[in-house]
Amino acid sequence: MRLSFQQQVLFGILFSIILVVVVGVTSYNAIMVQQQNAGWVNHTREVIGVAASVRSHLLTAEANVRGFAITNNASFEANYLQASEGILKELDALRKLVRDNKAQVTRVDALSMLLQSRLAVMGRQYDLLKAGNYKVDTIQAIVLQGKNISSQIDFSFKSIENVEEGLLMEREQNAQSSSVEAKQYILLGTSAFFLVILMLYYFIRKTYNAQIESEGQTLTANKQLEQLSLEDQEKNWILNAAVELSEAVRGEPTLTKLCKNLLDKLAEVTEAAVGVMYLVTRSSDVLEIAASYGMHDLAQVPQSVKLGEGTLGQVAADKKSIKKLDVTPDYFTIKSGTGSTDPAMVLVKTVSFQGRITALIEVGYLKDPGVKTTKLLDMVSDNVAVAI
């Protein structure tokens, strides 16, 4: 099925819209997956950071307890209390961060119990040191107990951190893969959309060129039809004019009347301004004027012309069928009631019967009468010769 130009454009636009929607949705999903993976990477890094902060607070608390035991300085006491509070806050934050991972929640709960035990041991040591009523053996036992708990805490921290580091590596790989996929989707969609635009441009351009070519062919055909119409009009005019000229010489008028009728009708149908008709004498060497049309002063027209003399005589002697003359201003003048002018062109037509010149017709026009007038003269010359 051949699609029209409008259907091609609509189909191309519809397909482009569908492609834009598909590419947009796919790219959006890929970007959302990328952002989600990037969020999990940041989440894992945050878990690792909070766990490190808990450990840091624990080490700070232990160090300040030892400092207070050695120096009995109040600044160590304040730092110890602050670090102990920080452990509990950071531990609560760590528990909230890993609530999506049940295994990590279990590990954090175990770590929380160990930290509570460690804080309790450090609390007893702090209370004895502050009271000043203690035995060295008691402090040593408390320190050893705290050391054992710290070893367990360190193992628990490593378990939590190892899991998070593994998750971090996996999630970083996922984030990188989703980033690559998002770029591929966007690049593929852009390429496909660009290809559709090129195809749409190709089909539109092809259809447009075909339409221009069709319009050119139609224009050429119209010009040919117009030319044929003009030719038909010209043929009809020639045929109608020939009929009128034939009717003008029909019957049995005198020779002078025949020439006058012919010349008047010829001037009428061809819009001639002036005209003269000559007949060949019996001696066949002289042309004598037989009729005139529109001439203001017959004195300016030769009454007789010898064959071979002057333009008219030479045309008759050469037996030329028709001759077109671009005349000079002094050839003869066309006058009317409002003024006068000179003919722009003169047609000289010889009339022959059985190869012998019998007459010569000279008509003057204000402008070129065109080819149809010469064709008319050629068509009627035989009938005129027979009538003469």
What can you see in these coordinates?
- Helix content is 71%, strand content 12%.
- The chain is built from seven helices and eight strands.
Kindly list the characteristics that best describe this protein.
six-stranded antiparallel beta sheet; 12% strand; rod-shaped; alpha+beta
Strand content: 5-15%
* Largest pleated sheet: 6 strands, antiparallel
- Share of residues in helices: over 70%
Q: Tell me, rounded to a whole number, the average pLDDT.
A: 81
Overall shape: rod-shaped
- What's the oligomerization state? single chain
Structural class: alpha+beta
How many beta-strand runs?
8
- Spans of at least 5 consecutive residues whose pLDDT stays below 50 are 335-339
Count up the helices.
Answer: 7
What is the radius of gyration computed over CA atoms, rounded to a whole number of angstroms?
61 Å
Order of strands side by side in the largest beta sheet? 3-2-1-8-7-4
Distance between the termini: 72 Å
List the helices and strands and how they pair.
Blueprint: H1 5-71, H2 74-97, H3 102-131, H4 136-248, H5 255-270, E1 274-280, E2 286-293, E3 304-306, H6 310-318, E4 322-325, E5 334-336, E6 339-341, E7 345-353, E8 356-365, H7 371-387
Antiparallel strand pairs: 1-2, 1-8, 2-3, 4-7, 5-6, 7-8
Helix pairs in contact: 1-2, 1-3, 1-4, 2-3, 3-4, 4-5, 4-7
Write a concise synopsis of the structure shown.
With 388 residues, the protein is an alpha+beta fold. The protein is 71% helix and 12% strand.
